[in-house]
Structure formats: structure tokens, C-alpha cells
Design a protein that fits this description.
With 473 residues, this protein is of the alpha/beta class. The protein folds into 3 domains: 11-280, 3-Layer(aba) Sandwich (Rossmann fold); 303-415, Cysteine-tRNA ligase, C-terminal anti-codon recognition domain (Four Helix Bundle (Hemerythrin (Met), subunit A)), CATH 1.20.120.1910; 422-472, no CATH class. It contains 15 helices and 15 strands. The strands form 5 sheets. The chain has a 5-stranded parallel sheet with strand order 5-4-3-10-11, sandwiched between helices. It has a 4-stranded antiparallel sheet with strand order 6-7-8-9. A hairpin with a 2-residue loop joins strand 6 (152-155) and strand 7 (158-161). Helix 8 packs across helix 9 and helix 10 (355-370) packs antiparallel against helix 11. The radius of gyration is 26 Å and the shape is globular. The structure holds one RNA strand of 75 nucleotides.
RNA sequence: GGCGACGUAGCCAAGUGGUAAGGCCGAGCUCUGCAAAAGCUUUAUUCGCCGGUUCGAUUCCGGCCGUCGCCUCCA
């Protein structure tokens, strides 16, 4: 078994260089990770949730490699805009207005829902969850710093960041500023450049916001990009190792984060930018809150799926590839997931053999994960291992225990099989009892008829030598 | 218009310059009154198309076709 050792090479695909790089932390033995969290004005959908699985994998792998990991996930609980860049309504405020609840209630509610979701997906909580509204002074301070460095200008509706003053603006995204949005109106009133963005927005004069704060520039609220940087500075420092998020954040949000952070500190902001690709529907359409075609984890649960089976599905594809979601794919993932666990349940702890082979699996599993988190490859190896007749149960279980600590599929938890979780209605049990009697009397016709009835109710009867069981179909 | 990604069996999906992991589904067999479950076996001469480089390409290069994402709040 691998001992904790930070000499194992971990390679990660860094968006900055668009290539795989060997991971080297800023401080030996320690890693600081920031994960862009959700805007809490609605439930997270399963596409959102996918992008929190790979940082979880990364964190656990780093910990197994012996690193001390400090990880932050934030909640954007204020200040998001619904439409045109730097225009439109605040999403949290809008949801509040629509439901009659306060903005604070809304954000609290959905933040808690998010925590429940990731818990169901075996995603470990970060060292801290941070809330944007709890870092208002730090955000104001950051704007002041940028102002003192003459990186900002004021318009009628806020304090803006002047991207033309940051020489390498857009480098992360390889943005071609002149090509941005050609032929489309993109600038808000008073903005000097297309890519400039709001640091601080003034509260509208004709309207009372629920969330607003005093600032040197007047009453208002922070722009979206500001919060992540302010929270990173406060919780992790001026330069961090890894920043994760979805690919959609590359051109705007993360480009802006880099611009404001590096202009403020003069230091490199983030060493490794990791971006997860989208989950798309069968038609390869993205799933989005704005698109109104989103599925929540709860929907999956309601349809009879296990949250862990969804995690299994996400691990079946690489985090940098599109994951084509369909219920067919989820069903096959769930079937495979429980089948794998049944195989593991049947392993014999007392049987020991093939130590050399096991060591080989160990190395290949670690290599797969250390190669930019190749979970699909690791899963394939897990299957190979479990079915390998040359390796003993003892060796298999040892490896499974170790790697499930990273994959977090609860492979050794045998309490969540559908037949153990789903209750069989008394009516169905009675039908099964009657069927068993007919069967004992060799009345096959009636026996089969009753089985069809049971099947129509979503259950199936399994006959054994002198007993039977009823399980969900 | 700019930037970028992808196209591997019915489905999901790894992968490598030397002739295609894994899973689901399907098929066959064993078992069973019949089933289910389980076990065993099996399932791409081929990696969108056309060229080029090479002893050899799915893997490298070029072109084409197709699909998708971002550039506006979104993971």
C-alpha cells in the first residue's frame, strides 16, 4: 500500500498553459484550494454538482499523497445579475421578490440545500464554506486598493475596473478583446471598454434593496467577481495553489479575478487553474438554470436513483470531457454500481494471495488518479481487480478500502441496495405469499399469473430452494 | 465575428505510433416447473471522411464533414 509521500508525481491540466503540468505546491507539504461555489438563488442542478466532484477527488488524492489541504468553497449570496452584463436584477433579490421570502432567507435556504446535495454525493465539506456577504469589508478594501492604484473609474452606477490598465488581461482565456461580441451591444452605460467590469454597484435611487452596504463610494453592493478574490485573500492568502470551477468561468469570471487580484498584489494569484467541463443532455445541449431544463439531485432520487450512482456516473467520464447525461446512462451506472458492490460484498477477507499482482494494481490505480484525475481509468481498474481470480480477497479489500477513500463511492457500504432501502408494500407481500402456496401445489398457471401482478406493481419474486424473496424491479 | 472542444461498438466511456480498458445492454450456456438472481462464455479486423509522414496511425500533420460550448448571470 502506498505510504503518504509527496514524491509521487501528480500531473494536472492547467488552463493557463493548456497542458498537463507536474504539481508543485507553493509551500512544501501544503496545498491551498479554492472552489468557485454556487450562487444560492435556486437549487443546484446535477450539472452544477458535477463540478464539485472533481475538486473532491483532487483534495482526497492530495491528502493521500500526504499533503495538508486547506480548501474553501464559497456561496455567492448576493449581487448576481440576471441579464446584460452589469445590468438587470440581482438574482437573489429577484427570487426573494417572487417567493415573498427575504433575500437572506433565500440564500440561506439554498446554501443549506447545496450542502445536503454534496453530502449525498459523498463530497467532503471544505475546510470552510465562506459567504460573500460575510466579507463585505474585505471586498470594499480590495476596491480601495485597486482605486489607489488607479485601476478603477466611476460611472453613474458603480465603480468599474479598467481592464485596459492590466496588461495581460484575458491571458487565461486567450481572449481577443477586439473580437469580443462583435456586432452586439455589450457595454453598460458609461463603461469604457467591453471587458471592464463592476467592482461596486450603487443601489438604485428609486428602489430599496434588501442587501446593501455603506461604502466610500456610497450605498451599494459588491460586483460578482470581487467576492472570490476577497475571500481567497482572507482565507488562503495572496497566492494560492489551485483554483477550480466550470469552463464557463474561464473568459469572464476567472479572467477578471486574475486582473483584480494581481493588480492589487503584484503577485501571481493562482498557480493551477482547473476547469471542469459541462454536463450536457443527450442532444449535447448544456443544462442550465437559465435554460430552464435542469434536473436536481432530488429529481434523481424521486425517480428511484441513488445519489451515489450519480457520483459513479460522473466518475465514468473524465472531468474535462463533456458528460452526456441521460436516464439510460444513469440507469446503467446504477446497475453497474450495485453490481460492483455485490461482488465486493462477496469477497473473502480470509483468502490471501497474489500480493505482487495487488501491488501492481495499487501502482496502476495511483498512476491513473495522478494523471490528471483519470477516474474512468481507475474505475476500470477497480473492476478488473475485483474480478481478478489471481488476487485474494484480503488483498482486494485492502486496495478497495484505500482507493474508495479517494473515489468515495461507499464501495464497502452494503446497506443501500435497493432491496434494502425500498419497502415492499404489504399488498405485494401478500400476493407473493399466495403465489408461493400455489407454487408449492405446482399450480404453475396461477403462480405465474400472480408473478405478473407483482411485476405490475414494480417488484420481482426470486425463488430459492425453500424460500423466496421480493425485491424492487 | 472571435476563442475553444469534441466525433472510438446499440448506449456510457478510457486509451496508445505497433495492430482497441472497463461498465450497461444484447446473445449463448449452466441453474430453474417457467422465470429472476447468480456463474461461465461471447459481442468494434476497427476508432467521422479524405490525403500526408512512417516499416507501421485510431493515436502525428493537413484538409473536409458533423456536433457542441464560451464570448451575457450560469459549473
Amino acid at each position: 500500500m502506498n505510504q503518504a509521500n509527496t514524491t509521487q508525481t501528480l500531473t494536472l491540466f492547467n488552463t493557463l498553459s493548456r497542458s498537463k503540468e507536474s504539481f508543485v505546491p507553493i509551500t512544501p507539504g501544503e496545498v491551498r484550494i479554492y472552489t468557485c461555489g454556487p450562487t444560492v438563488y435556486n437549487y443546484a442542478h446535477i450539472g452544477n454538482l458535477r463540478s464539485y466532484v472533481f475538486p473532491d477527488l483532487l483534495k482526497k488524492l492530495l491528502q493521500r499523497l500526504g499533503y495538508e489541504v486547506r480548501h474553501i468553497i464559497n456561496f455567492t449570496d448576493v449581487g448576481h445579475l440576471t441579464s446584460d452584463q452589469d445590468a438587470g436584477d440581482d438574482k437573489v433579490e429577484k427570487a426573494a421578490a417572487e417567493t415573498g421570502r427575504s433575500a437572506w432567507e433565500i440564500s440561506k435556504f439554498y446554501a443549506e440545500a447545496f450542502k445536503r446535495d454534496i453530502e449525498l454525493l459523498n463530497i467532503a465539506f471544505p475546510t470552510r464554506f465562506t459567504y460573500a456577504t460575510e466579507y463585505i469589508p474585505q471586498q470594499i478594501d480590495l476596491v480601495s486598493q485597486l482605486e489607489s492604484k488607479e485601476m478603477t473609474y466611476n460611472t453613474a452606477d458603480g465603480v468599474y475596473y479598467d481592464t485596459s490598465r492590466f496588461e495581460t488581461y484575458g491571458k487565461l482565456a486567450k481572449l481577443d478583446l477586439d473580437g469580443l461580441n462583435e456586432g452586439q451591444r455589450v457595454s453598460a452605460e458609461g463603461k469604457r471598454h467591453k471587458s471592464d467590469f463592476a467592482l461596486w454597484k450603487f443601489s438604485p435611487a428609486d428602489q430599496q434593496r434588501q442587501m446593501e452596504w455603506e461604502s466610500p463610494w456610497g450605498k451599494g453592493f459588491p460586483g460578482w467577481h470581487l467576492e472570490c478574490t476577497a475571500m481567497i485573500f482572507a482565507e488562503l492568502g495572496q497566492s494560492i495553489d489551485i483554483h477550480t470551477g466550470g469552463t464557463d468561468h474561464i473568459p469572464v469570471h476567472h479572467s477578471n479575478e486574475i486582473a483584480q487580484a494581481e493588480a492589487a498584489t503584484g503577485e501571481k494569484y493562482v498557480n493551477y487553474w482547473l476547469h471542469g467541463e459541462f454536463l450536457v443532455l443527450d442532444s449535447e445541449r448544456r443544462m442550465g438554470k437559465s435554460e430552464g431544463n435542469f434536473l436536481t439531485l432530488q429529481t434523481l432520487l424521486d425517480e428511484g436513483f441513488s445519489a451515489r450512482a450519480y457520483r459513479y456516473l460522473t466518475l465514468m467520464s473524465h472531468y474535462r470531457s463533456f458528460l452526456t447525461f441521460s436516464f439510460e446512462a444513469l440507469k446503467s451506472a446504477q446497475t453497474a454500481y450495485f453490481k460492483l458492490k455485490r461482488l465486493i460484498q462477496g469477497l473473502n477477507q480470509g483468502e490471501s494471495q497474489g500480493a505482487d499482482l495487488a501491488a501492481d494494481y495499487d501502482r496502476r490505480l495511483l498512476d491513473a488518479l495522478c494523471d490528471d484525475l483519470n477516474a474512468p481509468k481507475a474505475l476500470g481498474l477497480i473492476w478488473e481487480l475485483v474480478q481478478d481470480k489471481a488476487v485474494g480477497g484480503k488483498e482486494k479489500l485492502e486496495l478497495l478500502r484505500h482507493y474508495d477513500g479517494i473515489l468515495s463511492l461507499s464501495l464497502m457500504d452494503f446497506t443501500d441496495f435497493p432491496e434494502l432501502v425500498i419497502e415492499v408494500p404489504a399488498e405485494v407481500l401478500e400476493l407473493a405469499r399466495q403465489r408461493w402456496e400455489h407454487r408449492l401445489n405446482r399450480n404453475w398457471a396461477e403462480s405465474d399469473r400472480l408473478r405478473d401482478e407483482i411485476s405490475a406493481r414494480g417488484f420481482v419474486v426470486r425463488d430459492a430452494k425453500d424460500n423466496y424473496e421480493v425485491v424492487p424491479e
